[in-house]
Amino acid sequence: MQIRVVIADDHLPVLASVAAAVSATGAQVVAKARSPDELFDALREHDCDLLVCDYAMPIDDQVDGVEMFRAVRTQWPGLPVIVLTSVSNGVVLRALRELGVRGLVDKLSSLTELGEAIAAVIDGRTMSSPTFDDAIGTYEAQLDDPVLAREIGRMFERGRSCEDIAALLRIPDAVVDRHRHARNAADPPARSGRLGP
């Protein structure tokens, strides 16, 4: 049986490359999406066996990043997911893995890794790029990383509480609170009630 795949990325050239890489494995691309809204529509409208999706697609009102994958997992709990990203923060990657994401592929690596990830995930295994394995293994050293601080800031912008963010990223409340205080201290007084992106 041919594997049916939904793919999503907000950059057209990347979307085309991913589609070609998926097709090269013998799988069928049944839908393409360029935003979280389009992604959720595609998943509702098409039966599929696998989702291959960009991590960050901040171009509509839907959430992206970790929150987007939590929503996917909630609505389609059995759907295998491969995430394509250049985000190498171990905290973010570990949170995705704990949400049930089976494949983590570095966008900066060869697309042959995507083919390997598809084969592994369809076979019921997990797979991640070697650079990501290293990052996940040393995530505690990355709790003050600017990439993580940006992700936490985005979640605050969406109205998430410290406790929600900590639970979603699987990190201590104190780490989230530390990032919130650092961000508030850097903001001018007129913006002290909101965090920047």
Give the SSE map.
Layout: E1 4-8, H1 12-24, E2 28-33, H2 36-45, E3 50-54, H3 65-75, E4 81-85, H4 90-98, E5 103-106, H5 112-122, E6 127-128, H6 130-137, H7 146-157, H8 162-169, H9 173-186
The level 1 CATH classification of the largest domain is Alpha Beta
Q: What is the CATH superfamily label of the largest domain?
A: Response regulator
Q: Which class best fits the helix and strand makeup?
A: alpha/beta
- Number of helices in the DSSP assignment: 9
Number of structural units classed as domains: 2
CATH topology term of the largest domain:
Rossmann fold
Rg from Cα: 17 Å
State which percent range the strand residues make up: 5-15%
**Architecture per CATH nomenclature, i.e. the level-2 architecture of the largest domain:** 3-Layer(aba) Sandwich
Total strands: the figure is 6
First and last CA, distance:
44 Å
User: Helical residue percent?
Assistant: 40-55%
Spans where pLDDT lies below 50 across 5 or more residues: 189-197
What order do the SSEs take from the amino end to the carboxyl end, as H and E?
EHEHEHEHEHEHHHH
User: Biggest β-sheet: count, sense, barrel?
Assistant: 6 strands, parallel
* Average pLDDT metric: 86
